[in-house]
Structures are given as structure tokens and as C-alpha cells.
Amino acid sequence: MKISCAFATSLDSHEHARIAETLGYERAFFYDSPALYPDVWVQLCRAADRTERIVLGPGVLIPSLRHPMVTASAIGTLASVAGPDRTMVGVGSGFTGRLSMGKRPIPWAKVKEYVLIVQALLRGEEVEWDGGIMTMLAPNDRYAPARPIEVSWVVAANGPKGYGVTRDLGAEVLTILVPNPDFASSVILDFGTVLDEGEDPGSQRVVDAAGHGLSVVLHWAVEHGAIDELMPERGREWAAAYDDVPPEKRHLALHDRHLVAVNERDRPFVTGDLLVKGGLALSASQWRDKLAKLEAGGCTEIAYQPAGPDIPHELEAFAAAVHA
């Protein structure tokens, strides 16, 4: 199984990508959620300048956030810095990038249409969008890389419609928690931390490094009406911590420190027992067992997202556990 990393894009993600490269991570996905993190393309290009081998890309871009010409230009820029072979493009319907701004994910048909338009632009073709004909006009010299620009594509999908679009595009699939063995390349996004020998899973260090993984499960369950199914014991009590927030603003509170840390409303519910039960706080050997089960289920690559105040340590500990 390949190991890659995913970053809640920060102002120092370029340095974290450099460290990940030295540790043997193969790819680095940078989250694209403008309400939460710095501009993904700027940080990716900074990372490309500081690395030589690791593959880089947004994980994942949301079509509604940018005109397809803007995205094509951004992809071309990253490919000119890192090279096409080190450039990947992840795309999704907007689980975080749109929900954090109070919008539902866009239809999968729109995702497919957008990707096909961007791919045509990267090939140097003329396309019609929003009633206008356009093509990438920049000369193939110091203004833009020569077309066609060929890069790899990854689709974040969980469900039949998303899987169908992934197949239609001939892309890799990226899922959370459960792999899809129907694809030759099935990438899993995962969170958590490696416990030191005898370490308390409820310690502040562990909560800082892995608690965001529990929070995102709660937030997803609240926004999709699945709280009773996923968290039958304390789920309702936890969700009630947000009842004082007006419904039209609740998404803002739910995404406070999303995939970065545990916010004050979530903190009383993030316990060591839940972190262990959720597979987020594990010893090195337990991580290896977990990854072996994922691989047996069809996972070909794990995209590990570190968090907390010491991301270099998290990257090192996870790589050491896997490589052992």
C-alpha cells in the first residue's frame, strides 16, 4: 500500500510537504476550502518549489468556487513548477468547501461537466462555457506550459453517482474510512495519531492530534441527519451543543477549526475511549493492523492527515509505524 499525506492547507504546508517527501510519502493532497484555509494553489506552488519528488495537488477542488479557465490556468501553473508528472488534480462536489459557506454540494453531473471542460482547455481546445467560446491563449513559452497539459485526476466520491462520474472520467477514487475495491486505485483519507508506548489516549497531545477526526464525523452526521445511526449513545447530546446557534449560521459553528483542532463545543465529547473506538488513537502495531485490513478491502493508498501543534512529528511517527 502506498502512503500519502493530506494537509488542512496552512501557511507552512509547503514545509510539511518537504518533510513528508523526505519520509517517503508519495503524494500530498492540500485541502481546498477557502473559508477555512489559505489559497490552495499558492501553497501548492510554494511546495513545488521546495520539493523534488512528491506529487502535489488539491484534495479536492470544488467546481463552483472557480471559473474553469481559472482552474485550468492554476493547473498549468502548478505543472510548470512541479512538472506534469508531479501534478494531480483532486475534485469533489463540496463536502467541506461548500458546506462551510452554507451551501449544499453541487450535483455530480455538474462536477463531470466542469472536469471535462477543464480537461479540454488543458488539451488546448476551444470550448463553450456560460455562452462564450474560450481557449487557453497564453503562448507556449514563458507565459504557460505547452498544451496539451496531462495530469492525473482523483475524484472524492462516496455513493453510486460519484462513483459513476469517477468511472466516466477514468479517474482514481478517494473515499473516507471505507475503500472501494471496484477501482484499480482506491485512496482512503484517514486521520489520527500514533500512540507512544503507554500513552493515555485521552491526553491533551492525543486530543490535539486526533480529536479533529471525531469532530468531522459528528459534523457530517448532523448535516446529513445521520447522528442516531453513527453515534447512538451520546450523539444527540453532542449535537445539542449547537442548538443555541441559529440554523442559518450553524454551519459556521460546525466548521470552527474544522480538520485543524477541536473547538470548545466539541471538546467535552472528545474522549480517549472514543478516539480508540474510532480508530484514531492507535499504537504503531494497531495502525499496521488497521492498514492491512484496509488493503485487504481494496485500499491501494492511504492519505494520512496529520494535525495538532507538531505536524512534523505526526508525519514521522505515522511513516515509522507503516514502514516498520
From TrEMBL:
MF GO annotations: oxidoreductase activity, acting on paired donors, with incorporation or reduction of molecular oxygen
Coiled-coil residue windows: none
The Luciferase-like domain, residue ranges: 15-202
Classification via SUPFAM superfamilies: Bacterial luciferase-like (SSF51679)
Keywords for this protein: Oxidoreductase
Pfam families: Bac_luciferase (PF00296)
Protein name (Swiss-Prot/TrEMBL): LLM class flavin-dependent oxidoreductase
Biological source species: Pseudonocardia broussonetiae
